[in-house]
Amino acid sequence: MKRGYQYRIYPNKEQRILLEQHFGSIRFVYNRSLFIKNTMYSKFKINVTEIDLNNNLTSLKEFHPWLKDLNSQSLQQANRNLLTGFKNFFEGNGDYPTRKSKRDNNFSFQVPQNYQINLTTSKIYLPKIGWIKIVLHRDFLDKEFIKNELVTKQVNGELILDQKLNKEFDILKTLTVSRTSAGRYHVSILINDHVPEPISVEFHETTTIGIDVGIKSFAILSSGEVIDNPRYLLKSLKKLKKLQRAVSKKQKGSKNRKKAILKLAKQHQLVANQRNDFQHKVSIKIISESQAICLEDLNVSGMIKNHKLAQAISDVGWSEFIRKLTYKAEWYGKTILRIGRFDVSSKLCNVCGYKKDDLTLKTREWECPSCKTFHDRDVNAAINIKNIALNNLNTVGTTERACGLTDISQRYEARSHWF
Question: What predicted TM-score, i.e. pTM, was given to this entire model?
Fold first, then answer.
């Protein structure tokens, strides 16, 4: 099973310059290769391969000598990522690749191999950059596993894990270096421990939970539990507006404007970190307490087009929360069941099945005219999501129908869960 572990690094002034050069060069090579591929196909109907793009790097370095100072494998990885983007597009899993821009705040590059980790002094070695301080706040591999299964070396009494020496084991995969808009540098190490995915845990009605996500409340469970929405963005909005005004008052291109922009970015980073931490805690709690989780397929991209709800929906982070639930379910052998976005959940009485067509968004509680059951709108929706998912599974007997989706481009597997 593959997992990624992210750690913060603290480069010195010279190393930060080298990292920024790598970010810019990777973007330059990516855009150049995209131009070549588009031009060759549109004019000559020639499909440019990865080998062609990598061979072009040699001539590109002659015109731009500064490319020789960078890690060649990272440049080749940029070409590989471009072709992966084209592959995903033609398979219906992504948009057509476009040019990268500085304004996207997407600063990253990959190091496929030849990196080292000093487990004694907590430093990491990146080719063409050198040793950088890293905070290993958690183990990416068990210490006993490293000692007994991997090849390490001793240098001046320090224990070093070299990716090149362990290449044959195929455990230490690609390393990704990134920088946030707040100026924080991170490395993400992809590990393949070769441990097979756990066998799917059997579930039944009592060990299955239905979840209805919302804005007023973050999540409502079919058990009746309500998880409050912390509204981190809303709480920081006053400070964010103040920092944004400070940016707008500074002269463009000045040092003071750059300082103001950095303060604003750090506040946005704080809000994102708070939301991310909260979602991790909630998702692992739900996964630990249930064997199967029933969710509703939401058109989030369409819902945020409503300018009255866009900010609130973005603040709650539904898509990211569901993504966390998904991959954690894979880790622990749990099952994700999905129902279609057009299946009725809020308007349906979970007791007798009566459908209240005149139910509006403002109505938070209602009484069923048929069986006289008093419903909390969100709890009722969560119960219906659970019932519909289990009913589809029992009736049809396939995960595709249990997810409520039959189109191949929208198909979600109950054990592979991707969004």
Answer: 0.86
